[in-house]
Fold this sequence. Notes:
Five copies of one chain form a homopentamer. Chain A has eight helices and no strands. Chain A has helices at about 5-20, 35-50, 55-65, 65-70, 75-90, 105-115, 120-170, 180-235.
Amino acid sequence: xxxxxxxxxxxxxxxxxxxxxxxxxxxxxxxxxxxxxxxxxxxxxxxxxxxxxxxxxxxxxxxxxxxxxxxxxxxxxxxxxxxxxxxxxxxxxxxxxxxxxxxxxxxxxxxxxxxxxxxxxxxxxxxxxxxxxxxxxxxxxxxxxxxxxxxxxxxxxxxxxxxxxxxxxxxxxxxxxxxxxxxxxxxxxxxxxxxxxxxxxxxxxxxxxxxxxxxxxxxxxxxxxxxxxxxxxxxx
Amino acid sequence: xxxxxxxxxxxxxxxxxxxxxxxxxxxxxxxxxxxxxxxxxxxxxxxxxxxxxxxxxxxxxxxxxxxxxxxxxxxxxxxxxxxxxxxxxxxxxxxxxxxxxxxxxxxxxxxxxxxxxxxxxxxxxxxxxxxxxxxxxxxxxxxxxxxxxxxxxxxxxxxxxxxxxxxxxxxxxxxxxxxxxxxxxxxxxxxxxxxxxxxxxxxxxxxxxxxxxxxxxxxxxxxxxxxxxxxxxxxx
Amino acid sequence: xxxxxxxxxxxxxxxxxxxxxxxxxxxxxxxxxxxxxxxxxxxxxxxxxxxxxxxxxxxxxxxxxxxxxxxxxxxxxxxxxxxxxxxxxxxxxxxxxxxxxxxxxxxxxxxxxxxxxxxxxxxxxxxxxxxxxxxxxxxxxxxxxxxxxxxxxxxxxxxxxxxxxxxxxxxxxxxxxxxxxxxxxxxxxxxxxxxxxxxxxxxxxxxxxxxxxxxxxxxxxxxxxxxxxxxxxxxx
Amino acid sequence: xxxxxxxxxxxxxxxxxxxxxxxxxxxxxxxxxxxxxxxxxxxxxxxxxxxxxxxxxxxxxxxxxxxxxxxxxxxxxxxxxxxxxxxxxxxxxxxxxxxxxxxxxxxxxxxxxxxxxxxxxxxxxxxxxxxxxxxxxxxxxxxxxxxxxxxxxxxxxxxxxxxxxxxxxxxxxxxxxxxxxxxxxxxxxxxxxxxxxxxxxxxxxxxxxxxxxxxxxxxxxxxxxxxxxxxxxxxx
Amino acid sequence: xxxxxxxxxxxxxxxxxxxxxxxxxxxxxxxxxxxxxxxxxxxxxxxxxxxxxxxxxxxxxxxxxxxxxxxxxxxxxxxxxxxxxxxxxxxxxxxxxxxxxxxxxxxxxxxxxxxxxxxxxxxxxxxxxxxxxxxxxxxxxxxxxxxxxxxxxxxxxxxxxxxxxxxxxxxxxxxxxxxxxxxxxxxxxxxxxxxxxxxxxxxxxxxxxxxxxxxxxxxxxxxxxxxxxxxxxxxx
Lengths: 236, 236, 236, 236, 236
């Protein structure tokens, strides 16, 4: 559970709610408009659906939950674990690594250690592990792209909704008293677009990029560690 | 048929239609203005025509239909097919590949296999295939550029149309009752520009870039596969 | 004569003219304002003059006419011509190339063939031709930069003119009937800036970039062809 | 103490204060609105919190004070110090370096000299020093990113606050006299966002980037100097 | 004296002045507002002061005068001079170069020729000249950065001033007749920001970049020429 992102979303939402509550003459009801939500969220989703193949789009949901549920890997712990595995291999041979597979939770390390224990050639291990790394990187990069695009389309559809509201309002100006509320409703779509982009999509995309970079760094360390184990033991 | 893009366009269009239908006092008629369409779509086309040679511009139409009718190549199937061709070549010789040409539908693979079966030298095969790849990449990149530029010019011509409408309206303010509807009509051009850019051109350009990258990846795999077949058999 | 650019400019201009003609209550006169033209076009020119040395600025005029009068070189014809020259050189020796100089229209090929026929060493030929290529590339790139900058400054001076108009108008609000027309005139400058940028400068810059890339590709092919001719004959 | 940044902030703040004081009919009170501050500063913080892990976010505070309290390292002094250390090493041997450790204040030089004096192999020294450099670079880059993002989110939350104020105002237009002050309050949020971004966050991020580049240049010189000391003495 | 930049600034300023003079009902007085100048120019300076160390900031003034007083070096003359120096060295030896030092005005060439005449080793000459080149490049790049940043901050402080003016005006709407002039004054700050950025800072930054590139090209040619002189004579 990534506490900073949770705090961020809650803090942002509370601040906006408090600002509405303490403003004289304001009510939450004035800020709820379902057609505006439909235009902003639906429109951003529609534009993102056009941009990407369905598979990439659906995959984003899996990637996006990382914003909140990603537990940042501790790189020093990872290095310690790899060093300890290397010692086992040096002392008791590559086969002994199999006995330690159960204590490893990261499936990427398990993949590498399993291959090393089976005596797979180091070049083959590296090739397979790097292919897996590339696949993870592509999946994450696409996930980030989808959220990035939604952060780019949300304000655009906010503006589209406001323009639609203004066109409707300006075409029906018989009742001057209705102009104010009409404009208020029209502006809500722009407000939704700005909030979606700046409190959700853009920060989420930024965080996904950060997580992705950290995870790939961990995988790079793992690949190098396992290559070291596999090569040293063979040469030894 | 790329289902995500079709869903995206339909979803986006329906959402905007529903938003108009449920808005009190709105009618579809208020959102139809032919001169505005002419300025936004015609203007974006005109600007794009200036940007590119006629051939690149016309070619875009062919490339653009990929947004909807592109069937994403299954890369694992492609690899399987290349492996199976390699086995045939190893078992029965390069000449045997000719017997399998009929079952291949991708003309790029046919090109490579034909040359391999004819005993063309691997370097020459690679040269010819890479030249073809470059030509495809350039054609697609230009196609994407045209759509990108249209997504950039559409909002600009939307603004140009609105400015023209405002100049006309502000010069004829004898009848105050006409101000509202006049502004409504003026704003419709900006609305058209925003919708064209954000629901059509920009997502289409994004998708074309995605398809292009995927197709080039498939071609790269094909080139490497056929080089492998051609080299192995010669050395063997 | 590049037909696409000519069509583009005519199409764009006609569309805007038609839009004015069919708008009720509009007249061309309402869209002509000489001080606004002066601010937008003069201001963009002034800013571009500051950006570049006078020589680069004047050179742009020569480069810019390429947008309309550039005849795109046919690369297959170019390759055919080089192949035919190579055959002459192989059959009849380098000296025979001189007899064919008259039929070549491209001065860059003439430059290379002349040197090859004179028996200049291949390295020297390449050096001289590449220096010429660099000079052409720099000249074109600077030309494109000037037009690019004008496309960037035109909307800015459009806004400057509108702000000036608004300041004048807002300072003289004795006659409420003059407010509408005053704002109309103020907005015309923004309109001019947007049209100059989006129908002229930005597409022209884009086209110049395209032409430049194509021309350099042709020169690269020429250099390689002439190097081939010169080297093969020497070795032979 | 970096005098330019201190002068900059004080100058900017005084200018805005003076502009308010000399404007007829203005009072400082009209520019203080706590809910607007809450939305702009709180919102930017919330968005930045979502973007980064908590550790990177908290680390920014440590990095950000560099804007004011960074004393730019004098590179010629640094080079002199390294030259003098090299002379000691050449004259009296690497061990003699230990005697000079006390006079060095920069912990990065101390780290390197300590290792050189201990006879650590040059490659190992370089490896350890470069790893430390990378860690510093990453820490600073993340710090700059956080401030950059806040400079990007502040104007966005300024606009969000203004839109909220407008929606509230437009929904309560019974009293026409309240419209002006209502809009004034709504605009203050945009003003806060613009000031935070342009007088604080964006210049701070720029400065942090500048400091970071200078510090890494100093570290690079240090690494090369110590490598020279360590290698020369070993070879000698 | 760079005539293009001088013409550009004078042309731009005259155009704006003429536009004011010929506008009916306009007076120069309406466009002069000292607090607005203070906010735009002072604010941009303040923000730029925060961005850079004081030394880089002060150095900009020296670099910025290049926009007007830079005499573009004639590269063919430079090459001729280097060729003539090379001939002297070849005919009369390196020592003879000392006799020609007086006729050289460019201190960078003097530096190189002095070292060559003194018999300094070519590698050492190159090292020293390139270090000098790097120092010049960094100084110029920083100078351009400062002007670039001011071009970015000027419109932002223009908007800040306008927002401040609007907040003051909207809070004092007792006298409807004051609204127009109040808004006029508020808009002047945005106008100043746009003029400063688009007629001064941004074109100046562009020009500084151009000058910098040209000067470094001249220095590169000089370094290569002097290396040639020094190497040829030693080998000879």
